[in-house]
């Protein structure tokens, strides 16, 4: 961990000469080899030593171990050296040497665990040397690159490169130097490494590299592995105090003086201080017997655990949390959790210690209080980290061999954390109002508390409850400890039988709690025990499933008559905080994994570390308590199917609902990795039948609770798995799962009369399904999968279509299914499937009906697609949608998209229509157009005219519809548009008539000189002028009445005086060519109106004029003068008008000055 360039902590052990005082160790050392004696760390034989170190398999030694080595090894593993010294009066030196020799760790596994994250396994609980963070396997190349940077790998490289030197073992202390080769940017460095150890555990490390990290540095790894792999090359000395005991006074003085001389700059002040204290009679140092010896091993009171730098653990976790999920911090925290699981599996006490440090930093995260104050939710990934934290504590408190005082200490700490206000709740952002469901606490007086007074369940609540669980139950002990525990005295008269009809043991306990026991056994390195309990639980679940089926058959008539049930599970197993099904599945799969050495014994894991092997599973020989032909693999698959098919209520809260979906998908993803054989297909068949016939106890039963978790995702997996083997069963399962009762308005919510059912536990609960959009998309995916599979099968396609129309309530999803069916039906490499095309069309028609009266931003796309689909189906389909347009389209859609597309050349070419068919289709389109024009003339009249151009009668009918609507609902802009169309088609008089009708609807005020209708007014006047004097005379009164804008009127007036009206009149008769007089009607009326408009506009503008608009106003008056001068007395009128302005607005002196300068 964090290695600092400093001396190890002072030794706690005090060693003294024999006879020094009552605290001295009794007895003289026997068999001394003299001062300074040393020996290489040679074992009894190289082969035996190699076997003991794990370098050769046990049982393959070339000669037997000596009794001395066997005894010394056992003592070195279990006893602190001080106890050995106190227990025996005389300890021969050879015995001491063997104990010291065997006290160093002999397995590289722990060295690896404390110097690397493990990146090569598929599961956090997969075992030491193979745990990885939850979240999926990493890319192999990236994993290899990361792994080579790990301290453990770098340490191996340093060792293999011959970089370790000067290795010396003095008692329980190992030292040496490790040379770090020169790099491109850095010179060669030599690191001094010191390691203390006790009872095969490294208890402290120091390295001069100064590296700060959670892990041991590469130099510590290199030195440790050197001692493990090359023990015969390490010179071994007894503890330094033993050597000092051999010396006389002169030798001791020489020893001290030489030591001071060699290291005088570092130790001289300390040496002088110690000398002064020793010479002082009353000094503290003289009150203690003996002197410390850092090489003498542990005292009896020392805790025997591996070195863990707590400060660095806290700092690293704090850093990761502060990064808020960026820079891969979430991944790093998951790796830390995996490291805790790895430690637990190695039965290393530092697992709980490390988790405590992590939890303290999580609880101190300042974001918790901030989120609570702001009422915001934590991120999903961060929430998952808290879930893992709670699950790990559950594992720790369920350690089957932990001491009571340990558990009490953990319970106290957990309660303290749980009581903090900011401690996250178990179900995410929601306060869980369900009662204690783990059955861990007695349901006494508190069981009926009002839910509002019940404390919230936090992420630690289950671990707190689990502290009351124990492992002393004799039945449980027999289950986990023996493969031969049976009882054939079976009586099927009680609910909680200890054995089934075959005499196999059952374990009746709240399922998540029972599975938490399995997880705890696995996590603490008891895979066989975990497997035995898992098998008992699965057998219990299978028996329970059978019983539930029998119960449903007994009450089937009643339930089917009511059509509803209140029977449900409040606590689903998939998505549960304790992940019971995932635990059972993982335990059973671990047992049948071909390359899993952690289950059947450890292999040389350093060779396999980080190798991302493809997982292979096999049907291992059957366990005692499995049916004939069954295996761990079949049992794992079956329990996954049971859990996924469980009928359970949708939990409250967004996070809990998302977790249900996520866990279901994760479990199915693991199942998909397994290749189905005949044995597994039988399991699928068996469970599919059970689930279909299981009534309210199954999520696929005939009668389920309205708010049950839907089975779409699971059913899709069942469907694809069963389809090649039993298509009938596959379709039956998938069709049953298509329902989504929570959206059915007629579905009652449950039976309120039965207090032990859901209605009483969750009062007044209205469904708030936050994941409904995801659920509906999964329902759509299931339907799409069935449609794809049913291609070419008319009967199945009809059944699937009927199910879609009945169960899917989202127009967008039905539209997606229609598109999917269309794509499948018209694949390029095959002829179109007409049945599937009809299904596609039918779904499209349903979408049209569903979205006809609602707003949908994709509506235009949907209409266009439907026409395309109908075109593929054939001419009769197009004719049908046009005849029934009013149930499918708005009038605008029917004319502008449907009929227009049908009448297009591309459609005619695509359908290969003859003249008769073309005319029939065109007739339908014209009929549709006229109907739409009648219904919505404002938006459809122009389209109707366009579509009816080639049929005189239809065109006249459409024109009449326009005339009839012109006086009522049509706007001037619509009428002007149709009028322009009429002129373009060669109907100028009809255009003129529509233009006059449009003018009656128009009103342009004095300041609307940029109005969009101005161009239409100018066009209408130009059209009238071109038709003749009479037409112009008729429209000018309408213009005078509708237009009050002076600039527009003057523009019209000017245009009318430039050319002679009606140069080519009606019937081709030429006019005289004489310009119209301004003194006579109709232009006199227009001139007077224009002058009046200028006068009125001038007064209106002067009311609120500001100085910055003065110049613009003067220009306006200039244009007005031009119009005034068009009259024969215009000059007099304009002069009077200006004089009038000067008198009325004389207060605006600057403006009037400008008026006088310009106009006099």
From TrEMBL:
MF term (GO), any: zinc ion binding
Gene Ontology cellular-component annotations: Cul2-RING ubiquitin ligase complex
Domain of life of the organism encoding this protein: Eukaryota
Domain SWIM-type: 191-228
Pfam families assigned to the protein according to its UniProt record, in alphabetical order: ZSWIM4-8_C
Alphabetical UniProt keywords: Metal-binding, Zinc, Zinc-finger
PROSITE patterns the record matches: ZF_SWIM
Protein name: Zinc finger SWIM-type containing 6
């Amino acid at each position: 961990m964090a290695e600092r360039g400093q001396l190890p902590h002072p030794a706690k052990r005090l060693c003294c000469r024999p006879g020094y005082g009552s605290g001295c160790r009794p007895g003289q050392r026997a068999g001394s080899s003299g001062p300074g004696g040393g020996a290489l760390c040679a074992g009894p034989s190289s082969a035996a030593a190699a076997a003991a170190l794990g370098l050769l398999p046990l049982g393959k030694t070339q000669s037997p171990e000596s009794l001395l080595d066997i005894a010394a090894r056992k003592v070195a593993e279990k006893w602190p050296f001080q106890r050995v010294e106190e227990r025996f009066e005389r300890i021969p030196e050879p015995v001491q040497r063997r104990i010291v020799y065997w006290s160093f760790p002999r397995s590289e596994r722990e060295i690896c665990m404390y110097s690397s994250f493990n990146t090569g396994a598929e599961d956090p609980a997969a075992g030491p040397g193979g745990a990885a963070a939850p979240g999926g396997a990493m890319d192999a190349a990236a994993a290899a690159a990361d792994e080579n940077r790990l301290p453990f790998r770098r340490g191996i490289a340093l060792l293999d490169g011959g970089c370790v030197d000067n290795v010396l073992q003095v008692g329980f202390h190992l030292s040496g130097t490790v040379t770090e080769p020169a790099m491109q940017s850095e010179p060669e460095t030599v690191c001094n490494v010191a390691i203390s150890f006790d009872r095969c555990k490294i208890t402290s490390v120091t390295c001069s590299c100064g590296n700060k990290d959670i892990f041991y540095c590469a130099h510590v790894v290199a030195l440790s592995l050197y001692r493990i792999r090359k023990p015969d090359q390490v010179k071994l000395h007894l503890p330094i105090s033993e050597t000092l005991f051999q010396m006389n006074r002169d030798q001791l003085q020489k020893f001290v003086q030489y030591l001071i001389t060699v290291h005088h700059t570092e130790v001289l002040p300390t040496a002088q201080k110690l000398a002064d204290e020793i010479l002082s009679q009353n000094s503290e140092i003289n009150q203690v017997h003996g002197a410390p010896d850092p090489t003498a091993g542990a005292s009896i009171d020392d805790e025997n655990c591996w070195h863990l730098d707590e400060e660095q653990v806290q700092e690293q976790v704090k850093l990761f949390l502060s990064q808020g999920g960026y820079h891969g911090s979430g991944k790093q925290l998951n790796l830390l959790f995996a490291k805790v699981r790895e430690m637990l599996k190695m039965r290393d006490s530092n697992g709980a210690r490390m988790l405590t440090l992590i939890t303290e930093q999580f609880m101190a995260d300042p974001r918790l209080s901030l989120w609570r104050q702001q009422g915001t939710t934590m991120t999903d990934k961060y929430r998952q980290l808290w879930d893992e934290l709670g699950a790990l504590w559950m594992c720790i408190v369920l350690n089957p061999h932990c001491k009571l005082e340990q558990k009490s200490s953990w319970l106290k700490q957990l309660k303290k954390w749980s009581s903090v206000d900011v401690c996250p709740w178990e179900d995410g952002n929601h306060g869980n109002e369900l009662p204690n469901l783990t059955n861990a606490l007695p349901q006494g007086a508190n069981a009926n508390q009002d839910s509002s007074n019940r404390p919230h369940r936090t992420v630690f609540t289950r671990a707190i409850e689990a502290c009351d669980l124990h492992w002393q139950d004799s039945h449980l002990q027999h289950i986990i400890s023996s493969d031969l525990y049976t009882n054939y005295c079976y009586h099927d008269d009680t609910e909680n039988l200890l054995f089934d009809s075959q005499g196999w043991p059952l374990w009746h306990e709240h399922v998540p709690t029972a599975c938490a026991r399995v997880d705890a056994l696995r996590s603490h390195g008891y895979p066989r025990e975990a497997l035995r309990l898992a098998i008992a639980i699965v057998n219990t679940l299978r028996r329970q499933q059978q019983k539930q089926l029998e119960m449903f058959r007994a009450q089937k008539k009643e339930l089917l008559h009511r059509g509803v049930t209140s029977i449900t599970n409040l606590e689903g197993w998939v998505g549960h905080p304790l992940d019971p099904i995932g635990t059972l599945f993982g335990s059973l799969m671990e047992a049948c994994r071909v390359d899993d050495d952690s289950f059947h014994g450890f292999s040389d894991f350093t060779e396999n570390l980080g190798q991302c092997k493809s997982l292979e599973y096999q049907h291992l020989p059957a366990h005692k308590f499995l049916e004939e032909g069954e295996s761990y693999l079949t049992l794992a698959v079956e329990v996954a199917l049971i859990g996924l098919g469980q009928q359970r209520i949708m939990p409250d809260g967004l996070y809990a609902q998302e977790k249900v979906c996520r866990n279901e998908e994760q479990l199915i993803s693991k199942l998909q990795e397994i290749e189905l054989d005949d044995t597994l297909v039988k399991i699928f068949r068996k469970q599919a039948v059970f689930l279909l016939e299981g009534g309210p106890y199954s999520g696929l039963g005939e009668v389920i609770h309205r708010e049950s978790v839907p089975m779409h995702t699971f059913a899709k997996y069942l469907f694809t798995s069963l389809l090649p083997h039993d298509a009938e069963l596959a379709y039956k399962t998938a069709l049953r799962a298509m329902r989504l009762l929570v959206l059915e308005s007629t579905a009652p919510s449950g039976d309120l009369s039965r207090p032990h059912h859901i209605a009483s536990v969750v009062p007044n609960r209205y469904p708030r399904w936050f994941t409904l959009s995801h659920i509906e998309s999964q329902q759509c995916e299931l339907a799409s999968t069935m449609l794809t599979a049913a291609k070419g099968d008319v009967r199945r396609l009809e059944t699937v279509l009927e199910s879609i129309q009945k169960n899917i309530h989202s127009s967008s999803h039905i539209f997606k299914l229609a598109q999917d069916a269309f794509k499948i039906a018209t694949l390029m490499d095959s002829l179109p499937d007409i049945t599937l095309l009809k299904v596609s069309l039918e779904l499209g028609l349903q979408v049209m009906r569903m979205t006809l009266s609602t707003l949908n931003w994709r509506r235009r796309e949907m209409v266009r697609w439907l026409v395309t689909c109908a075109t593929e189906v054939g001419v009769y389909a197009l004719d049908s949608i046009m005849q029934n347009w009013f149930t499918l389209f708005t009038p605008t859609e029917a004319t502008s998209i449907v009929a227009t597309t049908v009448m297009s050349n591309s459609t005619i070419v695509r359908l290969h229509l003859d003249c008769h068919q073309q005319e029939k289709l065109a007739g339908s389109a014209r009929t549709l157009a006229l109907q739409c024009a009648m219904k919505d003339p404002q938006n459809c009249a122009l389209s109707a005219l366009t579509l009816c151009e080639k049929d005189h009668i239809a065109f006249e009918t459409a024109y009449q519809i326009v005339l009839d609507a012109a006086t009522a609902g049509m706007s001037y802009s619509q009428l002007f548009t149709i009028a322009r169309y009429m002129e373009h088609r060669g109907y100028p008089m009809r255009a003129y008539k529509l233009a006059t009708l449009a003018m009656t609807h128009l009103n342009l005020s004095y300041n609307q000189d940029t109005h969009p209708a101005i161009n239409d007014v100018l066009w209408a006047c130009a059209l009238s002028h071109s038709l003749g004097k009479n037409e112009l005379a008729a429209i000018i009164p309408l213009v005078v009445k509708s237009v009050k804008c002076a600039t527009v009127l003057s523009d019209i007036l000017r245009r009318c005086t430039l050319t002679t009206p009606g140069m080519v009149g009606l019937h081709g008769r030429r006019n005289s060519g004489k310009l119209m007089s301004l003194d006579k009607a109709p232009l006199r009326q227009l001139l007077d109106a224009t002058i009046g408009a200028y006068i009125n506009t001038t007064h209106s503008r002067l009311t609120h004029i500001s100085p910055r608009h003065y110049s613009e106003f003067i220009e306006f008056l200039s244009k007005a003068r031009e119009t005034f001068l068009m009259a024969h007395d215009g000059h007099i009128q304009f002069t009077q008008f200006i004089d009038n302005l000067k008198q009325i607005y004389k207060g605006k002196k600057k403006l009037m000055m400008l008026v006088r300068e310009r106009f006099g």
